[in-house]
């Protein structure tokens, strides 16, 4: 056993003793706090008490620390650095998933991976190094990095790396080798996404620690770790901005509920709680407060794949293409401007025949003075403004009544010479005047409130229906830019959906944008940071709406143009997104490494990637080799089951657990699922759009639902020429399917294999 390993094992024992002491100290303190809290609860008897709340928070902190320290005691850290700050002694710093401090002397036993100094572990690549701390730039010398491989809670191996030799060139200079990373990747199994704090790479670390104030867009090919980076970034941001950023301030948008389940373990494992996780569809439904069945993108792509009528398919695609654009957004803005001037029949505010505020004045307020406010907010603003003047208006009206009746009195005096008759008329006119004045004084406030109560707010759903149903307004708003045949299809599709209580996902962003235009959006409705995964599948319009929901444009967007299977509505160019949605104020980063698959699997998929002719660099694989993807030929369909069972046997022999049989579409998936149920000794699960989880080790899954997921082994079922043509959609579906495997990949073919492979 080498000297360094022995020394590190001694350090580990010392660290464990310190951690145990901390657990004991905090456990004793927890008992004291719990006892005191129990006394306070009895004393205040349900009333609010500052002291009680303070002890309650203290108890929660202690429980959390004890839990973290107990979890950490077996593997308290994964790395360390020797750093000599300028003007100070060299210090050895150990870095772990959770920071652990010695309460007595306030020294850090283990430094949290998110701490400023830990940046040196991930990104320090030269001896003369620095890191940014709250105190400013800390400069010094980074002497050594160490990575610790644990086995059965003991250090098995120490990777003691000299600076500048952390990464070495692989074969032909194409690949990158990190032995510690390679070992961890070999051990990786794909059931759910896991935290990777011990193996975060330099390019990933820079994204994770990027300031939160500007949007960052990350292009990463399959297996580049972009989702993992985005979620680790949340953990970092909450740590870095802990005074004003909490879990509940953050939203993660994922492509579907299955994917949400796939990432469900990672945030709790990073000690991040209460982050809101949702799909775009469900987020919009909740914001709009509507309960309709969503015709989502997976149902639509299934429709596109199965549609035999090419003209109908073209209409489906073009409808989505129109609704994806910011041009469509402009059309809706024009529509709202038109509605603004014709939708509201403004009347006087009266008490009987007396006008408190005339309609021309109210109309001026509505169309000019308060036009900076959303339509529905103007009513409230006008009401508040007029309410300030109501008392004065009543007094002016009463004075006007007096003046009007003074004129009537003069008329009576002039017309009636008989004193008794004149007296009777005057009494009547004075009574009439006084009753009217009393009515104005008594009813002015009530009539004022009734007026604004009857001023109905307009509804975004009703307006969107009006957009499609009012031909004159539609033509004016769209300026004839939508061809008539497509216009008719869009209108009939929308009407049919409404009749069946369905809303197309493509209509959610437009509908919510109308709501923003007429109701506005408050900070309470928004988030301090939003993560969008698989961003290439969102339309420009959807992303513009999401931008509106992020305070200060604080967004992390991760995606891969090569996997844009919803190409007809999604992002075609990052430049277009940055320019048109973010006004050229966004940071763009392209990841250069791929970590998921072996070199052989990545090389096999690269032919399909290159056929897409995208303006993105191909990721370099981490130097992890395995078997080349194997093509197995069968003569009849019945042989599928035998070959799959042979692969499962091989999988088990290699201590791997998860496997996916990937079909082109859901129809093929359902058919093959029935075959396996009937003929296989193994239990299989099937993934559909309705799944929010799949617990089985062996799955049948359509190609378009595999995005973002990974498995130890994948089997691509019969990718024949008729299934995968030269179309852009087929290229993207095939590329996605070929990049899901961590360790092993098989293709079972019955017919002639596609030329794309």
TrEMBL record:
Which Pfam families does this entry report, sorted A to Z? UvrD-helicase
Supply one GO molecular-function term. Answer: 3'-5' DNA helicase activity
Query: Which terms in the GO cellular component ontology are assigned?
Result: cytosol
Top EC class per UniProt?
hydrolase
Q: Which residues bind ATP?
A: 220-227
Q: Which domain of life is it from?
A: Bacteria
Protein name as it appears in the record: DNA helicase IV
Key words of the record: ATP-binding, Helicase, Hydrolase, Nucleotide-binding
Please list the GO biological process terms of this entry: recombinational repair
| Positions of the UvrD-like helicase ATP-binding domain | 199-598
Q: What is the lineage of its organism?
A: Bacteria, Bacillati, Bacillota, Clostridia, Eubacteriales
- State which Enzyme Commission number(s) the record gives: 3.6.4.12
């Amino acid at each position: 056993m080498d000297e360094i390993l022995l020394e590190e094992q001694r350090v580990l024992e010392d660290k464990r003793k310190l951690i145990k002491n901390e657990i004991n100290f905090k456990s004793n303190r927890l008992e004291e706090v719990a006892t005191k809290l129990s006394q306070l609860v009895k004393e205040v008897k349900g009333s609010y008490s500052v002291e009680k709340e303070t002890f309650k928070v203290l108890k929660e902190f202690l429980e959390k620390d004890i839990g973290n320290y107990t979890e950490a005691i077996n593997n308290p850290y994964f790395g360390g650095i020797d750093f000599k700050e300028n003007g100070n002694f060299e210090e050895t710093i150990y870095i772990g998933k959770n920071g652990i401090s010695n309460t007595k002397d306030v020294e850090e036993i283990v430094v949290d991976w998110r701490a400023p100094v830990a940046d040196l572990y991930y990104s320090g690549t030269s001896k003369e190094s620095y890191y940014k701390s709250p105190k400013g730039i800390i400069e010094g010398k980074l002497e050594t990095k160490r990575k610790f491989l644990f086995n059965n809670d003991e250090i098995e191996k120490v990777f003691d790396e000299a600076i500048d030799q952390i990464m070495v060139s692989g074969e032909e200079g194409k690949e990158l080798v990190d032995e510690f990373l390679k070992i961890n990747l070999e051990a990786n199994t794909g059931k759910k996404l896991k935290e990777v704090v011990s193996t975060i790479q330099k390019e990933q670390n820079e994204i994770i620690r990027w300031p939160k104030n500007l949007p960052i867009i990350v292009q990463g090919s399959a297996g580049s770790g972009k989702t993992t980076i985005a979620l680790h970034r949340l953990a970092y941001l909450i740590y870095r901005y802990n005074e004003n950023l909490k879990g509940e301030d953050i939203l993660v948008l994922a492509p579907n509920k299955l994917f949400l389940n796939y990432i469900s373990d990672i945030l709790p494992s990073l000690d991040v709680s209460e982050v809101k996780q949702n799909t775009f569809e469900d987020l919009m439904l909740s914001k709009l407060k509507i309960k309709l069945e969503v015709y989502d993108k997976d149902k639509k792509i299934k429709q596109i794949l199965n549609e035999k009528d090419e003209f109908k398919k073209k209409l489906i695609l073009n409808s989505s293409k129109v609704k994806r654009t910011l041009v469509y957004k402009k059309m809706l803005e024009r529509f709202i401007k038109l509605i603004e001037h014709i939708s509201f029949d403004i009347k006087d505010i009266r008490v009987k025949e007396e006008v408190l505020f005339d309609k021309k004045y109210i109309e001026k307020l509505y169309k000019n003075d308060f036009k900076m406010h959303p339509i529905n907010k103007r009513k409230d603003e006008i009401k508040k403004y007029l309410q300030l003047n109501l008392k004065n208006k009543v007094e002016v009206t009463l004075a006007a009544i007096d003046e009007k009746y003074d004129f009537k009195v003069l008329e009576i005096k002039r017309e009636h010479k008989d004193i008794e008759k004149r007296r009777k008329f005057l009494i009547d006119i004075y009574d009439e005047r006084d009753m009217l004045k009393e009515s104005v004084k008594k009813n002015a406030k009530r009539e004022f409130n009734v007026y604004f109560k009857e001023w109905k707010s307009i509804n975004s759903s009703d307006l969107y229906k009006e957009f499609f149903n009012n031909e004159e307004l539609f033509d004016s708003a769209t300026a004839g830019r939508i061809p008539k045949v497509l216009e008719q299809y869009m209108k009939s599709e929308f009407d049919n959906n409404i009749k069946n209580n369905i809303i197309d996902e493509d209509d959610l962003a437009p509908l919510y944008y109308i709501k923003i235009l007429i109701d506005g959006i408050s900070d309470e409705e928004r988030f301090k940071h939003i993560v969008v995964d698989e961003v290439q599948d969102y339309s420009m319009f959807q992303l513009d709406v999401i931008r509106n929901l992020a305070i200060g444009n604080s967004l992390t967007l991760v995606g891969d143009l090569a996997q844009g299977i919803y190409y007809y509505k999604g992002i075609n160019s990052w430049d277009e997104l940055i320019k048109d949605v973010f006004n050229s104020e966004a940071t763009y980063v392209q990841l250069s490494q791929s970590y998921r698959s072996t070199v052989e699997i990545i090389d096999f998929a690269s032919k399909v990637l290159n056929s897409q002719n995208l303006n993105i660099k191909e990721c370099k694989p981490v130097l992890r080799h395995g078997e080349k993807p194997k093509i197995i030929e069968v003569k009849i369909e019945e042989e599928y089951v035998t070959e799959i069972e042979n692969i499962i046997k091989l999988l088990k022999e290699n201590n791997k657990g998860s496997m996916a049989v990937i079909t082109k579409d859901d129809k093929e998936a359902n058919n093959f699922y029935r075959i396996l149920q009937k003929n296989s000794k193994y239990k299989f699960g099937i993934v559909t759009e309705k799944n929010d989880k799949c617990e089985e080790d062996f799955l049948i899954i359509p190609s378009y639902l595999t995005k973002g997921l990974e498995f130890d082994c994948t089997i691509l079922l019969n990718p024949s020429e008729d299934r995968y043509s030269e179309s852009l959609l087929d290229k993207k579906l095939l590329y996605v399917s070929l990049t899901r495997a961590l360790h092993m990949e098989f293709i079972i073919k019955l017919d002639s294999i596609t030329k794309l492979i």
